[in-house]
Write a structure and sequence with these properties.
By secondary structure, this protein is α/β, with parallel strands linked by helices. It is built from eleven helices and 19 strands. Helix 1 packs across helix 3 and helix 4 crosses helix 5. The protein is elongated and about 80 Å long.
Length: 371
């Protein structure tokens, strides 16, 4: 195996999407932004389509264009772009990429970017206060969109929004957001718009909130097998990524020896330490020092001492190990190895961060996938 490796089970992605699709009458837009949440943009997209996704979603225009260049022809939405990305915007529109936007200024840019009509999804800010038009500005946006659509300069394909608390089912804000979204749809209808797609549900809402499914759901982290509501279980999803490395060195140290930078860990006895060639340059969080879980030869350990740029050390006691044995940082957990959720719990973060930060030095190895 390579020195460091993220093994991605594409069949797991396909099965996860199929499971999500079976739970809703809506179409599925598989979110493959951020290089497929670290799993690989194009392979993840193809695996998701094989599982029944009919749409794909990315944040940035460059990833949308990369999918088109790879021959992916499925309907595709990109929603995070700046006013200066005029060439990328034109390229995306010319390649049939739908554009998400939430202001009159952005709508005007999209309408002028290409000779072809821009397919747009108008975003209403229902409470996240991030992107999207504020409710006060929504009537102006939909009126402008209706005018441009009548002129043949845009096609309003969708109206959409984003939840604040979808990972906390039953939160009062969620109920309010659904109501605000409904009001925004009515305002758009009165302006003369008839979008074919209304979409609001992310991963958590896809598995817990059927009243928010509308015409299209947008699961992201769930398609990679990570539960969007961990306290409610795994929803039958299978994690697709296993992060592992070959031990670069194994040696004995004496009781009291300090380990790694700053001696944040001291050997409590004569012991064996193993050097894992992954560090914060590869996406292993530096604050995993003394808490990050690792599996080696069936034993469960934690990072011992400070995580370095390229490596960290694990005290394995008297376990029989040798250079070349595998250290598994996380995987599906089926063989007792830690999961991305275990890492998130240990570091007081979310599993999204754990998988998406795995860096490009780590080779991706793909199992299965569409034939």
């Amino acid at each position: 195996m390579p020195r460091t490796e993220a093994v991605v089970d594409l069949d797991a992605i396909t099965a996860n999407v199929a499971r999500l699709k079976a739970g809703t009458p809506a179409d599925v837009l598989a979110v493959v932004k951020a290089d497929g949440y670290g799993h690989g943009l194009v392979p993840s997209a193809r695996a998701a389509l094989a599982g029944g996704a009919s749409w794909l979603g990315v944040a940035v225009l460059d990833e949308a264009i990369a999918l088109r260049q790879a021959g992916v022809t499925a309907p595709l939405l990109a929603w995070l772009w700046s006013p200066h990305e005029t060439e990328q915007l034109r390229n995306a529109i010319d390649r049939g990429v739908d554009i998400g936007l939430g202001s009159v200024a952005a709508l005007s840019l999209a309408a002028r970017a290409s000779a072809a009509p821009a397919r747009v999804h108008l975003k209403i800010d229902t409470g996240l206060s991030r992107n999207g038009a504020h409710a006060d500005d929504w009537p102006e946006l939909v009126a402008a969109a209706a005018k441009l659509e009548a002129e043949g300069r845009v096609e309003v394909v969708g109206v959409w929004s984003h939840f604040v608390w979808a990972d906390a089912p039953g939160h009062a804000t969620t109920t309010k957001q659904i109501a605000v979204f409904g009001e925004a749809l009515e305002i758009a209808r009165r302006a003369g718009l008839r979008p074919q797609l209304r979409h609001l549900a992310n991963s958590a809402a896809t598995v817990t909130l059927p009243e928010a499914h509308f015409d299209l759901v947008r699961p992201g982290v769930a398609i990679y097998g990570l539960s969007p509501v961990p306290e409610r279980g795994d929803f039958g999803l299978t994690p697709a990524m296993t992060l592992r490395a070959e031990l670069a060195l194994v040696k004995r140290v004496r009781a009291g020896d300090g380990i790694s930078y700053g001696h944040q860990y001291f050997a409590p006895r004569d012991t064996t330490v193993a050097l894992v060639p992954l560090g914060y340059a590869d996406g292993v969080p530096r604050n995993a020092t003394n808490v990050g879980p690792v599996s080696i030869n069936g034993g469960r350990f934690t990072v011992s001492g400070r995580v370095c740029m390229d490596q960290f050390v694990v005290d394995v006691g008297d376990l029989a190990v040798r250079a070349g044995d595998h250290a598994v940082l996380f995987g599906p957990g089926h063989e007792g190895e830690p999961t991305a959720q275990d890492w998130a719990d240990a570091l007081a973060t979310i599993h999204y961060e754990i998988v998406t930060r795995v860096g490009p030095r780590v080779r991706r190895t793909y199992l299965g996938g569409p034939s």
